[in-house]
Write a structure and sequence with these properties.
This protein is of the alpha/beta class. The protein folds into two domains: 3-138 and 301-313, 3-Layer(aba) Sandwich (Rossmann fold); 142-298, Rossmann fold, CATH 3.40.50.1370. The protein has helices at residues 24-39, 63-74, 95-105, 116-125, 140-154, 170-181, 198-211, 221-225, 245-252, 259-265, 285-288, 295-314; strands at residues 52-57, 78-83, 108-112, 130-132, 161-165, 185-189, 214-218, 230-233, 270-273. A five-stranded parallel β-sheet has the order 7-6-5-8-9. Strands 2-1-3-4 form a four-stranded parallel β-sheet, sandwiched between helices. Phosphoric acid mono(formamide)ester binds at residues 61-64, 134, 142, 274-276.
Length: 320
């Protein structure tokens, strides 16, 4: 499906490829429904009876695969996992033909790809909703769930200050876009040469201007974490960049989240990570395994937020 505005359920989009597509009100709808789904999952146990979702993954996954599979099952639907680690999308047959076949059998495509364009092509050619389960550029389901987790921690009134330390990658990009839409503050610190994508920074800043949010970038991790309510980090080498792990480990070592860096944030600052994590690299065990860490709550909320997303994209009306 294309990204043209069409009311399906209560969302203003047909696909979920990027947070850019959502209006702040859409995020509000997703969060309101996610709260209800989380509180009373049994009320939604037959909501997607007869619906099928194809999960196409070119990269490994624990959280995203399990939360989408469990999400579909607990909504009464079904999912089919298609391992596309080999061949990658487009190698055996054109992406257009994959989209045109799948739309005949299933109601939704959830895809994790290397190239972001593989996702946009799927969305362009499929007449069913396409959900981004991570691409080299973006990880919108993650960021959407993470900001839901922060909202649970701080309430919907407070606008927590988030600091992101590490690689200017897919997770960082989607966090910038989500925080901007929500009118909140995100300070990012990366090493020189690993800054977030300029176009996304520009877009996030333009959105932030209209929502009262603030997106900034610096090279000094201590400076960005000062006064932060939560400090977020991600792996230094994302999936597909493993060949550069050694070089990156040297460049990124001043950006490791240590107890000392958390102290610089403040005594109550929370620690966040999308996982998988490498203890001793981007974060020390002392921090990720401490009481400050909310990483498993983030992981749990992937389930509830994605269930809300599936309901809003797949049901004619959310009926609640
Ligand atoms: N955070 C996340 O997307 O985890 P997986 O790669 O295990 O799906
Ligand atoms: N930036 C990481 C996120 C994993 C969930 C990656 O792309 O590998």
């Amino acid at each position: 499906m294309t990204t043209s505005v069409m009311e399906r359920g209560r969302l203003s989009v047909e696909d979920f490829i990027s947070i850019s597509q959502l209006r702040p009100e859409d995020i509000g709808q997703i969060y309101a429904l996610a709260e209800r789904v989380k509180a009373s999952p049994q009320d939604y146990s037959r909501a997607l009876v007869g619906k099928q979702t194809a999960l196409i993954f070119e990269k490994p996954s624990l959280r995203t695969r399990v939360t989408f599979e469990v999400g579909m099952t607990t909504l009464g639907g079904h999912s089919i996992f298609l391992d596309h680690t080999k061949p990658r999308l487009g190698e055996r047959e054109p992406i257009k033909d994959i989209a045109k076949n799948l739309e005949r059998w299933v109601d939704c495509i959830v895809a994790r790809t290397f190239q972001h364009e593989a996702l946009t092509q799927l969305a362009e050619h499929a007449s069913i909703p396409v959900i981004n389960a991570l691409s080299d550029l973006l990880h919108p389901c993650q960021a959407l769930s993470d900001m839901f987790t922060l909202r649970e921690k701080f309430g919907s009134k407070k606008k927590p200050l988030l600091a992101y330390v590490g690689d200017g990658n897919n997770v960082c990009h989607s966090l910038m876009l989500t925080v901007a839409k929500l009118g909140q503050v995100l300070r990012v610190a990366t090493p020189p040469g690993f800054e977030p994508n300029e176009e996304i920074v520009r877009e996030a800043r333009a959105v932030a201007k209209t929502t009262g949010g603030e997106i900034s970038h610096d090279y000094d991790p201590r400076k960005v974490v000062r006064g932060a309510d939560a400090v977020y980090t991600d792996v230094w080498a994302s999936m597909g960049q493993e060949y550069a792990s050694h070089m990156r480990a040297q460049v990124f070592s001043p950006y490791r989240v240590t107890e000392d860096l958390m102290q610089a944030a403040g005594p109550d600052a929370l620690f966040m990570h999308c996982l998988p994590a490498h203890r001793g690299q981007e974060v020390v065990g002392e921090v990720i395994d401490s009481d400050r860490s909310i990483v498993y709550e983030q992981a749990e909320n992937r389930l509830h937020v994605q269930k809300a997303l599936l309901l809003l994209l797949l049901r004619e009306s959310d009926g609640s």
